[in-house]
């Protein structure tokens, strides 16, 4: 009998061709719409599946694993983050987990640079001003839309994995003064020379003593850590109160690492200068009247960190390859340790 594989999105190009080419060996059941996959559809169709290819919006939990059944061998997530996956449940059932942590590093690091500059240089506010027809009343002025300069900034990284390190590499030519990082990945020491940074950098790259020091010293705070119980609301009122008034915070990781209410207050009270967010708590359910959208100094984009054409094609292809590897017991492009 053919193995059954569930795919919770329509894929494209090479990835779809790889799937279609296996139609003789595999029964591929694919969510038919462009919208996120319905949970009820997934639970219903998962029954009897050997592999499931999921998006970050699909929760992989005991309920789904039970619905699939004991023949399930592999989950392949089209993402770097795996906080939507109950890893413990996979481990106890000997189900392998594939993900795409390497191919999206450059795309997300690029977006991080965009958000830093948007936050420091008031990109969102500037665009709104022009679009709202306010420019004639606010002509060029020496102090119009002035913000802090990136040169000379101390940049603090909460989480110092691949994306953070690739961001640091991009920041070096801007003339930043110093990099501070905080990492909690157990058993995964930070390799400062992973990207040849130590050789390239004529600046200090130091491990922070804690979140307090990082908050106090940084002009730019970059949230790039995984979402775990210990990083949830890591950036909250206490953290904002320690930040410099001209500092900005950027989140390219997961929304709940920043306490949104605390961020709104920090912006209202001018405790910090601005924010650049690719992710936010409760996304995508942010209504037009949400207080964060009333903050002129907050730029929020809709979780597009890895959204380059090249990277999304690569993520799709790697996810399909991870499913195939999971079915046959071969090596995945990237397999998560459970
Ligand atoms: C995006 O956030 C991802 O985890 O790939
Ligand atoms: C994760 O990115 C970490 O370095 O903590």
UniProtKB/TrEMBL annotation:
Cite a GO CC annotation.
cytosol
Query: Is Chloroplast tagged as a keyword?
Result: no
What Gene3D superfamilies is this protein classified in?
NAD(P)-binding Rossmann-like Domain
Query: What InterPro entries does the record point to?
Result: D-isomer_2-hydroxyacid_DH, D-isomer_2_OHA_DH_cat_dom, D-isomer_DH_NAD-bd, NAD(P)-bd_dom_sf
Presence of keyword Oxidoreductase: yes
Q: Which GO terms describe its molecular function?
A: glyoxylate reductase (NADPH) activity; hydroxypyruvate reductase [NAD(P)H] activity; NAD binding
Pfam families the record matches: 2-Hacid_dh, 2-Hacid_dh_C
Q: Residues in domain D-isomer specific 2-hydroxyacid dehydrogenase catalytic?
A: 5-334
Domain named D-isomer specific 2-hydroxyacid dehydrogenase NAD-binding is located at: 113-305
- Keyword annotations of the record: Oxidoreductase
What family name appears in the similarity comment? Belongs to the D-isomer specific 2-hydroxyacid dehydrogenase family.
Query: What protein name does the entry list?
Result: Glyoxylate reductase
Tell me which species this is from: Cucurbitaria berberidis CBS 394.84
